[in-house]
Give the backbone structure.
Amino acid sequence: MPSETWLVAGLGNPGPGYAGNRHNVGQMVVDVLAARLGGRFKSAKAQAVAVEGRMGIGGPRLVLTKPLTYMNLTGGPVSAIARFHDVAPDHVIAVHDEIDIPFNTVKLKFGGGEGGHNGLRDISRAFGTKDFYRVRVGVGRPPGRQDAADHVLRDFGTVEKKDLAFLLEDAADAVEALVLEGLVPAQQKFHAPVS
């Protein structure tokens, strides 16, 4: 019987100076999931904080984690917590910012490339495989000639902040749909064409 424990890693950078950055949207989504589980993050041994809970009575067990390392060193904490909880990479979901999809959009995938995302690249390196799930939270491309790194290391703009809570809820819903229904049904729900 496959493991019913899922590890959901919210990617970002540590500390209050980065908390509102687009690059930290993965951690913001995991905060929403933790609130839904009614849990509080506690220190884990692997340079991370974590919270555990079940999705409903007898439902799948979720381990939510936020690495306390910088984005490019995410793989060590995520793989260590996966080993501690005996979670295989195919039951790991990385929630992360994605500049290649528009703001207010959520997409899901399994495996594939990292698209230049240093956090994903480090997780792939640590696991020795790219075969883990990703919930990609759209933050849009930088305006004009702004560098992509500058764009993701800035807080969401005033207009974006009005819709940010809805985006975080949608991304949390996408994680839950992926766990409860599987990838294809979750993609069908969240990849609907924009009219």
